[in-house]
Fold each of these.
Amino acid sequence: MKTYETLAIDVDPDGVGILTFNRPDKRNAMSPQLHRDMAEALEEIRYDPTVRVLVLTGAGPAFCAGMDLKQFFTELGDKPAEYDKVFRIATEWRGRTLRYFPKPTIAMINGFCFGGAFAIVEGCDLAIAAEDATFGLSEINFGTFPGGAVSKALANLLRPRDALFYGMTGRKFDGKVAADIGFINYAVPAASLRDEVMVVAREIAAKNSHALAATKDGYHHSLDMGWDAAISYANVMQDSLTLRQKGAWQEKGIGDFLKGEFRPGLEANPGLRDG
Ligand code: ACO
């Protein structure tokens, strides 16, 4: 895989790609270069067959300290075209690209997670944090609001009272609270974070990749549809999945169950991983 100035990417033999924001000295704040790197890396990983599940995390004590306040807001302040270009890339990769990424994504939140980083967490399918990770909507503390994709990320995931409480106070909260308010799946002690995430990632990496992509698509697109359109879309997607798998979920999935070879309620059919 290509080398990136602000990222490190490793892929393990089970198909788990780990993308690490790699500006620890700046608490992995999202500089314009990091946004450009992310857009390019996600495009590369999208088509890399060795990556089945993507984990996003940060180097050092931070997951991501939000937008790079100096390089983005200050240094691009008098360059409207460049500001607009970076803003568009920044919004696209955290919002649409991650949301509709054809492979499962997991945010592994190892430390500080502020402001614009909430949109990364929300864009990922799953999020698991260290219990002592620090989250905060700090925008209010420097006199602004959760702009860009962040307000929508809050609206998508949080209950109104929590979104407005943390948005208006700027109070920080830890991984346990992030789980309690539904911003992440769950939190674990920092020392076991990586192992825990890898167990989940490998479990998902062993499932059928077409079925995983359909699971994401069905969920995300249904959110914006009425009931009739959602059912119609699901029916079309079912046909499309059958085509892409060449009928495998019926023949091997249901077929092997009927032969008594496995119980889908309790385990996956290993022969369906790549089919
Ligand atoms: N943008 C630019 N630089 C940053 C950012 C950021 N968001 N966050 C940290 N840095 C830089 C610091 O300026 C410092 O740089 P320096 O060594 O050149 O002086 C370096 O990272 C280390 O930061 P410290 O504050 O010394 O680290 P510490 O571990 O004590 O604190 C913390 C970390 C809590 C993350 C603190 O840096 C902070 O409050 N950062 C801002 C977080 C924030 O409000 N993010 C923006 C949200 S709004 C948005 O994203 C739109």
Note: The pocket of acetyl coenzyme *A is lined by residues 25-27, 29, 61-62, 65-70, 112, 114-116, 138-139 (CB under 6 Å).
Amino acid sequence: MGVRVALVSGANRGLGFETARQLARLGYRVVLAARDLNKAEIAAQILRGEQLDVVPHQLDVASAESCARLGQFGVDVLENNAAVMAESDENPLAAGVLSRSALTVAPELLREAFETNTLGAYRVMQALAPGMRERGYGRIVNVSSGLGQLNEMLGGYPAYRVSKAGLNALTRIFASELREAGVLVNSVCPGWAKTDMGGSQAQLEPEEAVATIVWAATLPDDGPTGGFFRSKQPIPW
Ligand code: NAP
């Protein structure tokens, strides 16, 4: 077996960047994918400076064309990490507190979140899962959130919540279709982490938050599939 290849989407910053670093430290060749090639190159340069095997690549998960180009890579491990918090105050489509309530949120916000967080992951899986199935090996980690958990679903942040619940459904569907092919597909909630999305008040450093993501990326052949995990333990959907 040669060097395994891992692709991380949205890897120029935050949890994606830290996941790329930790997988590369474990000996994976990491395709560090970001929607802005320049940002991918800058991030890859940092990790190469740490003697890590990292290849920058342009990937906008909201673009069908950009995702279709991924077919060129033989990817063994996919981290669907790229996402937007559509309700963020920085989003020009969002309208502050009105966007955080299901009663007043603009439907465009749901569409935007779905386009990146759900359909984006779907496009990347469609591009890469057939190769995994052919080779008889694959690990797919959908970076989800407790905010997408139906079991504990509360009000607020409807766009983000619905998009992550949809992502969790994709985990179940792809896990079922790929189960016999040696491809394990799981959702992970990293916990509340200090990133641009999580904010400075968050509990976890990125290094701690990606532990379960890296664990799911490196599962043994008899590892779980079709599950939702936090702190390496199953949690309800
Ligand atoms: P972040 O710092 O905001 O980073 C998000 C990343 O996604 C950025 O690299 C961003 O790229 C990328 N991205 C957004 N839209 C994209 C697109 N269309 N194509 C490609 N890349 C795109 O967020 P984070 O905290 O690291 O979050 C990483 C993952 O963890 C997400 O799935 C998030 O939902 C999940 N999560 C985070 C927390 C938390 O507390 N931080 C908690 C639960 C779950 P640009 O730099 O180009 O914008």
Note: The beta strands are 5-8, 29-34, 54-58, 77-80, 138-143, 183-188, 228-230, 233-234.
